[in-house]
Design brief:
- There is one protein chain.
- With about 500 residues, the chain is an alpha+beta fold.
- The chain has 13 helices and 29 strands.
- The chain folds into four domains: about 100 residues, Trypsin-like serine proteases (Thrombin, subunit H), CATH 2.40.10; about 110 residues, Trypsin-like serine proteases (Thrombin, subunit H, Beta Barrel), CATH 2.40.10; about 100 residues, Pdz3 Domain (Roll); about 90 residues, Pdz3 Domain, CATH 2.30.42.
- A hairpin with a 2-residue loop joins strand 18 and strand 19.
């Protein structure tokens, strides 16, 4: 009986085994999977693409740059004070008491806020370069530096700032740091691969890549700084966002070629282009600040603009080159050297000058007391002027508008002349107007027609035309004679005084 039971069990077991084989199509892997303890394998067993060795080498180069430059870039947080806004109710009552001469409320409340940016280590003992706008409003001991390895240094020392280049140097008490290697700006080319390193939007140690989109970008007014601000930027499409300010722009060799400072944006964040201060300017400014905490830069004392095609033609230049002098400050090095409004600066120390920001970039490296040789285009010929640079404050303190002496009290007779073909109208200037604008002669621009030649060239009303083609204008008739003497296609150069500055306007006489 037991044998029968054992035989029956054996037959049942054999049946189950054969059934399993049939279900799995006699596939050994199927049987294995039935009893396996590990999950089923997913995904391909190998990468679908075999990478070209050249591409792999480029990828490895990117890896190497990232590893090399990350330790040289730091995160900077800054505490600063702002005025707390009052409630509308309190504001109304404060203005009420002020209006009637009553007592004011207590001083407006102050509150502390925090901002962040980036910086680049430039010495092993803790000197760091960053943007002036990152640290300029910091309260005492309000600058904190965090290294790539997470070490934190509070109360970093502000060594010095240079608002005109938007650079600053701070110092932390540290040793054996890894400083950045300064690249050669002369070797930077449009199209070079670059890496922007910083701490955008609170994301520490972020690296983005792109190319050099342009060199020598200027007159962008991105920072809304002083009109003497140096804007000679490297433009890049490597993504830069708030928090990247003061971080580094590096080349494929891991060398620093710029300090990220601004973005072109309508949203407050990256929309395609960023701008960096070139490394040669960074090097010069940083050394100056480390030496004594201030900038000893020299100044010529002129207001300039890049030449355009119409101005070049009007001035008799064979090609579009140089920068046009629009204003010469009183008692400045430029005035001492005999530079005049309407001159074109073609070269500085034998080096061609193509744009206004390029000339600004050249002056960055000169100190007060240095003598520079300028090649000037005036009256259809080249002349040469040696200019001894002065400190900026000496030039500017004498640039204030002073009231001319000995003015007659009565007004001159008003005479109106309209230049329909150019699109503007002038009238005689009164003695009071001449006094107000601090000029000896000229005619007042009373109207500029929209979409006219004058409007397109930047002529605006409420200015005084002092000279035309370098000749003094004392009446509307003087200006009419000069314009009527011109043939179609010829140029007219106007020297115009507005309340805060001189401007040079070049107009081309239209055909009949």
């Amino acid at each position: 009986m037991k044998r029968d039971i054992i035989a029956a069990i054996a037959l049942i077991g054999l049946g189950i085994f054969l059934g399993v084989l049939l279900v799995t199509n006699f596939n050994a892997d199927g049987i294995k999977s039935l009893f396996a303890d590990t999950p089923k394998e997913i995904g391909l067993s190998q990468a679908p693409v075999s990478v070209n060795p050249t591409v792999q080498a480029l990828n490895e180069a990117f890896n190497a740059v990232s590893e090399a430059v990350n330790p040289t870039v730091v995160s900077i947080s800054v505490e600063f004070e702002t005025t707390a806004s009052l409630s509308p109710f309190r504001e109304q009552f404060r203005e009420f008491f002020r209006f009637f001469g009553g007592p004011d409320f207590e001083d407006e409340p102050r509150r502390r806020s925090e901002a962040s940016g980036s910086g680049v280590i430039i010495t092993s003992d803790g000197y760091i370069v960053t943007n002036n706008h990152v640290v300029e409003n910091a309260v005492k001991d309000g600058i904190t530096v965090t290294l790539h390895d997470k070490r934190v240094f509070k109360a970093a020392k502000l060594i010095g700032t240079d608002p005109l280049t938007d650079l600053a140097v701070i110092k932390i008490d540290a040793k054996d740091l890894q400083p950045a290697h300064f690249g050669d700006m002369g070797k930077v080319k449009v199209g070079d691969i670059v890496f922007a390193v910083g701490n955008p939007l609170g994301l520490n140690s972020t690296i983005t890549s792109g190319i050099v989109s342009a060199i020598g970008r200027g007159q962008l007014n991105l920072m809304n700084r002083d009109r003497y601000s140096v804007e000679n930027f490297i433009q890049t499409d490597a993504p830069i966002n708030p928090g990247n300010s003061g971080g580094g722009l590096f080349n494929i060799e891991g060398s620093l070629i710029g300090i990220n400072t601004a973005i072109a944006t309508r949203t407050g964040t990256y929309i395609g282009y960023g701008f960096a201060i070139p490394v040669d300017i960074v090097h010069a400014v940083a050394l100056d600040l480390i030496e004594d905490g201030k900038i000893d830069r020299g100044y010529i004392g002129v207001s300039i603009k890049s030449i355009d095609a119409t101005e070049a033609k009007t001035l008799g230049l064979s090609k579009v080159e140089g920068v046009l002098v629009q204003e010469v400050l009183k008692d400045s090095p430029a005035e001492d050297a005999g530079i005049e409004i309407g001159d074109v600066i073609l070269e500085l120390d034998g080096k061609p000058v193509r744009t206004a920001n390029e000339l600004q970039g050249m002056i960055v490296f000169r100190k007060a007391g240095d003598v520079v040789k300028l090649t000037i285009w005036r009256d259809n010929k080249k002349i040469y002027k040696n200019v001894k640079l002065k400190p900026r404050d000496k030039s500017e303190t004498t640039a204030e508008v002073k009231e001319p002496k000995g003015e007659k009290k009565q007004d001159t007779e008003v005479n109106v002349v309209k230049f329909d073909n150019l699109g503007f109208t002038v009238e005689s200037a009164t003695n009071n107007q001449l006094k107000d604008f601090d000029v000896k002669n000229g005619v007042v621009i009373t109207r500029v027609e929209r979409f006219s030649i004058a409007s397109e060239r930047g002529l605006m009303p409420n200015g005084i035309i002092v000279k035309a083609d370098r000749k003094d204008i004392k009446s509307p008739e003087d200006l009419r004679k000069i314009i009527n003497s011109k043939k179609a296609g010829e140029g007219l150069l106007l020297q115009v005084k507005y309340r805060d500055t001189f401007r040079i306007i070049a107009l081309e006489i239209p055909g009949a």
